[in-house]
Amino acid sequence: MQYSKPALTINDQLDQLENRGLLINDRNFAYNFLENVSYYRLAGYWWSLQSDKINHIFKPKSDFQTVANLYNFDKDLRALVFNYIEKIEISLRTRMIYQLSTQHNPNWFEDSSLFQNQADFKSNLDIIDDELKRCKEVFIKEHFKKYDSFSTKTPQFNRPPAWKTIEIISMGHLSRLYGNLKNNLKVKNDIPDAFLVPNHTFFSSWLQSISLIRNFCAHHSRLWNKTLVTTPRLPTRPKGRWIKNLPNSYSVQKLYPVLCCMRYLLNSIDPSNNFTDELQALCAKYPNIDIKAMGFDISWTNEPLWN
């Protein structure tokens, strides 16, 4: 079936929302909002306000201001989470570069004997080569200029050492590199041990989940009430402060467990971090936001992890 719906003007969009039961108390405000945030992007925020999701009929007393508040909360949440993921990413990158370079060799990322899946190893190396070839960072350009080891015309070249090369790859790629390390390597448990994480199995799943959240933040995707396909494995007795009430089957696919993993890692990276305070302040700024939609337990602030 071919898509045949016409494009709607903003006034038509507002009329359609009103016809479906959404209260618009300030049409000028709603018009300006839709001028800057598309109808389809906002649909993810009013979805939970609909009683009939087939015909898109809203629940009684649903209003546009609630939709705007949800959107603004989510925007602020992404900014907060992204800021703290940066701290985790930089610490992870630093520890991987240092531990693997000192325990093995400066170009450990191109040593196939350190990795378990050779197809993934080759794929990761191809990604690194692509990043190096298009990288505009001065320290990469200066390296190739000085050592005369790079040519886009040849498939192989002398790659810079890890402390240069690994700085330019994404967190997702960093996570894949770590996950593909052989499990019997001492360094694979040395790195999570530095963060007080029980072992590499938990750590790998945490990195995958945090990388996914980072991508949502970087691409301005909805984070509030998102159901996650990648979830972290949650230990029952880790070495540091943790949560007593582990999430149930619904909550484990939401944001809260990933935030718990982030808080745990941050406590080892920067014990004086303000993640809890800033998260509480954000929730206080938007008191009508349903935090249970993110998997939060109502008494989450009483958990040892968050104190």
Largest sheet: 2 strands, antiparallel
Mean of pLDDT: 93
| Gap between N and C termini | 55 Å
The main sheet orders its strands as 1-2
Poorly predicted runs: none
- Overall geometric form: globular
Provide the β-strand percentage band: under 5%
Structural class: mainly alpha
Radius of gyration, Cα only, in angstroms?
23 Å
Helix content: 40-55%
Q: Please provide the count of β strands.
A: 2
Count of separate DSSP helical elements: 12
Oligomerization state: single chain
Count of domain modules: 2
Order of helices and strands: HHHEEHHHHHHHHH
Brief digest:
With 307 residues, the chain is mainly α. The chain contains twelve helices and two strands. The chain has a two-stranded antiparallel ribbon with strand order 1-2.
